[in-house]
Write a structure and sequence with these properties.
Blueprint: E1 5-11, E2 25-27, E3 33-38, E4 41-46, E5 53-56, E6 63-68, E7 74-79, E8 83-88, E9 96-101, E10 107-112, E11 118-123, E12 130-134, E13 151-156, E14 163-168, E15 173-177, E16 182-187, E17 194-199, E18 205-210, E19 215-219, E20 225-228, E21 241-246, E22 252-257, E23 261-266, E24 279-282, E25 291-297, E26 300-305, E27 310-313, E28 323-325, E29 332-337, E30 343-348, E31 353-357, E32 363-365, E33 375-381, E34 384-389, E35 393-398, E36 403-411, E37 416-421, E38 426-431, E39 435-440, E40 443-449, E41 454-460, E42 465-470, E43 474-483, E44 486-496, E45 501-506, E46 512-517, E47 522-526, E48 533-537, E49 544-549, E50 555-560, E51 565-569, E52 575-579, E53 589-596, E54 599-604, E55 610-615
Amino acid sequence: MDSNYTHVKTLPPAPRTVRGKPCHMSLHPNGTKLLYCNGSCVFIRDVSDPTDCDVYSQHSKDTTAAVYSPNGNFIASGDTSGKIRIWDAINKEHVLKYEYELLAGPVRDISWSEDNQRLAVCGEGRGQTAKVIMVDSGNTVGNLNGATRACGTIAYSPKKPFGIVLGSEDFTTYFFQGPPFKMNAQYHEHGNFVNCIQYAPDGMKFVTGGADCRMFVHDAEKGILISELSEMTGRIHKGGVYGCSWSPDSKHLLTCSADKTCKIWVMDEKYYASNKEAVVFTMGTELGDMQLNCLWAGTTLLSLSLNGNINYLDADNPTKPKRVVQGHIKSIVTSCLSSDKSFLFTASFDGLVFQWNLQTHEGVMVTGAGHTNQVQNMCRSGDMIVTCGMDDTVRWISVKEKKYVEGKVIKLQAQPQQIAAGENNLFVVACTDGHLVVIKDEKVVQILKMKYEPTSVDVCSALGKVAVGTKNSKVLIFDLNIQGENVVLNASDIVPTNGDVTDIKFSPDKTLLGMCTGKKQVKVVETTNYDMEKINQASHAVRVNAIAWTPNSRHITSAGVDGAVFTYSVETGEKVVTMHGAHARSIDVTTLQWKSDNELMTMGRQDCCTRIWKINSFE
């Protein structure tokens, strides 16, 4: 890494969830670390302090599952291409040890042998949907054939005699013994997809849970059925069972379901036929409260909601979690800092906005009636964050209440691209169809029909100027005239660029105007003379997504689809900080913010997270 900058913190996303499917999560053998996937990355978070996060970003395709080896030294992760990567879990570099292409489709689950020497993998693919291999060679150790459809769960027994249990979407559970492994039995107990299989830590039993709301307990050595859990009712939940996890002492089992509950069951021999669970956790009533996985991490109980919330369950108060960890599920597309720069707001293409406390690094989802589609852009205005979205509306967020202001919505005639705030409750919105919309005191006061379609906009009330970037390789400068309640924009200057303008920003000291284009260009001109160029660079390999100024106006930073982040000096016009692959080589940076003159925040598309950097050379 370049000595000019240091990675300080990652504000991670939530696990990538899909309705109707279990979402893979796993734990370090000692229960202190949580593993999950989002985009092309694997995230490693501390269970006791979830703001402590590490990221593995070397997969080229979306990751689907990740599991620690029993000794905790390695992690095996799989992706949608059917590839397995086995990498070092101890050092920050996460050096790759082995890579194997095992399936013709996405990997869905992974399980290690207790001696760290073998790996069982299942998923989707033509013909073969499960394999067991030697870790150090990739050679198969027997045959896991038999399933006629995709397999979503697999478990390797923790004790001899070794067995592997495979759950399939053909409603069947397959029991193999070895090595070399061969099928010993098939069980047709479930009436729907088999979603989860877990061996007890003592190696005496294993359980299978399915979308038919039922769970069965089997003997681990011979595979024979012992009993159905809650046999009197025929089901343990009112919805499909998506996850289960044993307590470390093998005496209790935690289950979760689409019925928006988690349950603890006492797993002694006298309890299998009981119709009574020990504890029921009620997680809510909304669609997003469906539970897609659960984990028993030492004395901590975790569950995952469809909306991405990681819930810390409280057995003493089952109706309310001790803690809820939130984050984006989808790509971040825009961002904005609060006026005092203590909070960062990020928005994703699913229409959700999160507020991040930059002291504690914890994120909270903004509540209230928000956008129904992608949030296109945000700007700050006093103690408000103003947003525009693909639902053709402008909305206001209260920074203090972390909530959309009720009833404060402006409907636009065209889709907004960017919004900029001036003084005295003035906003200018660049819209498709050549519309430039002026809003004053929460009312549309002017709609300017332009010859060129606007793509970006910024306002400088101190100069009385509005800068509008267009698709036609031009930045148009307007004089801003406020006459009582009326606002009039008059064209005054044109700044040429080499392509469609993707972002535009006045410097904090109002002396400079920065702009970037879809054809690699980053350009800075003086506001007293728009012909006077201070910077004109084309360092990016492809489209530049966004620019941001340092508070002292001495540097401007650009972020691109190529994943690079470059910082330029206004004084010299040259690059002074180069960050290739700020998030990863395959992850483009969509937006960025300067918190101070040496603290930079970048937001990635595919990894859905924010990274905080310290620029050492600016101290």
